[in-house]
Structure formats: C-alpha cells, structure tokens
Design brief:
By secondary structure, the chain is an alpha+beta fold. The protein has helices at residues 20-38, 44-61, 66-81, 92-110, 124-132, 145-151, 155-167, 170-185; strands at residues 11-17, 190-194, 198-202, 209-217, 222-228, 232-240, 248-250, 255-263. It folds into two domains: 20-183, YacF-like (Orthogonal Bundle); 188-263, YacF-like domains (YacF-like, Sandwich), CATH 2.60.440. The strands form two sheets. A four-stranded antiparallel sheet has the order 1-4-8-2. Strands 3, 5, 6 and 7 form a four-stranded antiparallel sheet that branches. The chain starts with 10 loop residues before the first strand and ends with a strand.
C-alpha cells in the first residue's frame, strides 16, 4: 500500500500487511491522516471530507472488536520487549520509555467505557450520512437538508464539531499509531536489487510477520506491487506505459530498492 512520500528522505514507502490486524491498522492510519487534512481547511468541502472520513471510520470499526485486538497485541509486544532489559546492546532507558508508552496505551484503551466509535453511532447527523454513503452522490443537499445546513455553518463551529467527533477515537488512534511505529522500527533497512524488475524471498519460519516495506526514491518512475504471506513475498516493479494510457507494465531492467521485513 503506497504511503506518503517523506520530503526529507525523498523516498516513497510501499507497505504490504501480512495479517488482518496490520491491514486494519494501516487503514485506520490512512483515515486519521485524511481527517487531519480535512481539519486544515475551512471550506464546506473540507468539512464534507472530514465527515465522510468519520463515516468510513465508523464502518471500519463496525467490522470487529478492534479494541480487544489492540489490547492483545499490546500485551504481546510487552511480553516480547520486557525480557530485553539488561541485555547486551540494549539501551535500558529507551526500552523503559517504550514499555511505559505501550503500557499507557493499553491502560487507556482498556479504560474506555464502551466500544471505540460507539459515541459516533449515536449522532443523528453522522448516522444519516452513513445511511446514504452507499449511494453515488447520495449526500447532496436535497438528500440530506440537515447535513447541507450544517456544512454552511460558520467554519469555526464545523471545525470544533469535527474535532469533538475525532476526539472520541483518540485512545484508539494513539494505540494504533504506537503499534505501527514499533512495527516499522523493528526491522533494519536492506539495500537490494530486483533483476528484471522482480524480487522474491522466503520469510523465516515461525516468525510473527506484520509488514513488508519497500522504499523507492520519490522521483522513481516505477512503483512497487507487493504480494505475500507469512512464508513468502514477491515484489514486482511496474511503470506507466509510454502512451500514458494509465496502464502499467513490468520493468525489465534491474531496480535498486530498500526492503524492510517487519517481524517482531
């Protein structure tokens, strides 16, 4: 899954989750970043993007007990990291700070009075938009007059309401971002070459894999398509055809790239 390019490092990261938990966390991260963008503007179109992002978050959270899944993962990570104290080469101060952060996320998530997103499902405006979201163009002014009215309220009022809605998911966001950050920091970056635009690799047997990350220069003319499982991964590099018709074809040359196999 393509991620935003980092201007300082001038790279674009492509990520492939290796399990359903990582897949859901990446989608949550994407939606929260989209919500952040919506909050940067005062136009009704920015607010519309913010509301529709919240609706997507509601739909995603309705597919399973994500809080329980995150609590289990935080417990597992704490069990993996705690025994590293006083091991050679381990910075105990940094490790303790990380453990405290994980424990804090776990504690705050468990203390929530209800399921994450539960408060959003009680909001009449959001529920109305949710019910119309499956219809193409279904949130026009004539479909939802109350929503149309809200979108034309003063920008300050709309932004404050969006922030209140998003704040009900702050513990979930903090926990998810902490786990993803740990995944990404758990693997060294390897410099590799893909001959004829393709690379394959076996993964260590029995290792708990979370993410595969492929890093390419931001100005690269090709992009990475990653497929795989907990046993084996394939990376193919594609680029747009010369006619610019939107189609992509596999690169026939050797592609230099960086790889991270995030397994913790």
């Amino acid at each position: 899954m393509p991620m935003e390019s980092n201007a300082e490092e001038a790279v674009t990261a492509y990520e492939q989750p290796l399990n359903e938990r990582a897949r859901t966390l990446l989608r949550l991260e994407f939606l929260f970043r989209q919500a952040d963008f919506a909050l940067q503007g005062e136009s009704p179109w920015h607010s519309r993007l913010g509301v529709h992002t919240l609706v997507e978050l509601m739909e995603l959270l309705g597919r399973g007990d994500l809080r329980s899944e995150l609590n289990k993962e935080l417990d597992r990570l704490l069990g993996v990291l705690a025994p590293l104290r006083r091991q050679p080469g381990v910075d105990d101060a940094q490790l303790d700070a990380l453990l405290q952060r994980l424990e804090g996320c776990n504690r705050r998530l468990k203390a929530l009075p209800g399921a994450p997103g539960g408060a959003l499902k009680q909001d009449e405006l959001l529920v109305a938009v949710l019910q119309r979201s499956g219809v193409a163009g279904g949130t026009c002014g004539f479909d939802l007059p109350a929503y149309h009215h809200w979108l034309h309220r003063h920008p300050r009022e709309r932004l404050e309401q969006l922030q209140r809605w998003l704040s009900t998911l702050s513990e979930l966001r903090e926990a998810g971002e902490t786990v993803l950050s740990l995944y990404r920091q758990s693997a060294n970056i390897q410099s590799l070459n893909a001959e004829d635009g393709s690379y394959q690799r076996k993964l260590p047997a029995g290792a708990p894999g979370q993410l595969i990350r492929v890093l390419l220069p931001a100005e690269s003319r090709c992009h990475a398509v990653i497929s795989g499982s907990k046993h084996f991964i394939t990376v193919r590099f594609l680029q747009a055809t010369a006619d610019g018709g939107g189609r992509a074809e596999r690169v026939s040359d050797t592609v230099h790239f960086h790889l991270q196999c995030c397994m913790i």
